[in-house]
Amino acid sequence: MARKYIFTDKKHSYNGLMSTSLGLIDVITLIYTIYSTYLNGGQAPARYAATVVLVLVFAAVGIILGLLGKTESDRFHFFAYVGLVLNILALIMVSGILYAGAYMI
Q: Which of these, 41, 87, 96, 104, is most buried using a 10 Å CB contact count?
C-alpha cells in the first residue's frame, strides 16, 4: 500500500480561524447562559442579557470574517465554513431565546 503525499503551500485562512474561534466562544457562552438561567429557576439577571448582546455582536463579526475567509484565494476554506456554521447557529439560538421570551409564558 503506497502512501500518497500531497505537497502544497496552501495555509488556513486567518479570517476563517478567527471566525471559528468566535463561533466556538458564542456557542459555549450561550449554552452556559441558558444552563445558568435554568439553574436560577428561569430568572435571568441583567448580566445575562448583556452577554447575549455581546454574543450577537461576536456572531455578526464572525459571519463577516467567515465570508471574508471563504473568498480568499490559495487558502483552505474549512475553518471559514465551520465558523459560518457556528456563528449562524449562535444567531439561531439567540433568535430562539428571543422567541421564547416574547411568545412563551
A: 87
